[in-house]
Amino acid sequence: MFELFNAGGFIMYPLLLCSLLVWFVTFEKIRFLNNLKKDIDLMFIKGQALLKENKIHEAKGLSHSIHPLLSTPYLTLFESEELTREQWSMRLGRRLIETQQGLKRSLWIIGTIGSSAPFIGLFGTVVGIIKSFQSIAASGKSGFAVVASGLSEALIATAAGIIVAVMAVILYNYFQNRLTSVNTEIKNRMQDLMDLI
């Protein structure tokens, strides 16, 4: 594997960095979303129980134990006395949009790598072909033996770029789908709590 990596030329290092970034963001995002799921459940189950018992102060205090992306819209639920129903709904809508944007943080890295990795691989392809022509020029001969090293580098770089891109695109689409589901769940849970208030 190490020999294959070296055979791909210098372009393999940026591709390796891209791959590591994709996996770092992936594991961080999975950890974050799993913890957020626990907070969503806590906010809804405990918050619902407290609101049914009319324990508004304790329900507000619940915001200190959940993630800031959830606590901000959650606290907006308790501003109903100061605002009209329409103003209240609009303010909650704005807080939920902020939460939605916060959930997408760092996802752009995977998306960018997914779209740019094939071009990084293609650059490696071009460099490999240039080396092949330089080998022909230096030896004054043509044939497979002369160009084999350059073509091998070109093909390995191309394959590596495609692998990194495919991996990144699959993970990007997975997170987009999961974040849509999380956003819907947060919105629905907030509206259920709003009905109780």
UniProtKB/TrEMBL annotation:
Residues annotated as domain MotA/TolQ/ExbB proton channel: 83-186
GO CC, one annotated term: plasma membrane
Key words of the record: Cell membrane, Membrane, Protein transport, Transmembrane, Transmembrane helix, Transport
Keyword set includes Amino-acid biosynthesis: no
Membrane-spanning ranges: 6-27, 107-134, 154-175
InterPro entries for this protein: ExbB/TolQ_transport (IPR050790), MotA_ExbB_proton_chnl (IPR002898)
Topology term for the membrane: Multi-pass membrane protein
KW Ligase (keyword) present: no
Pfam families assigned to the protein according to its UniProt record, in alphabetical order: MotA_ExbB
Subcellular location, record wording: Cell membrane; Membrane
Principal subcellular localization: membrane
Top-level lineage group: Bacteria
Gene Ontology biological-process entries: protein import
Family as reported in the entry's similarity comment: Belongs to the exbB/tolQ family.
Name of the protein in question: Biopolymer transport protein
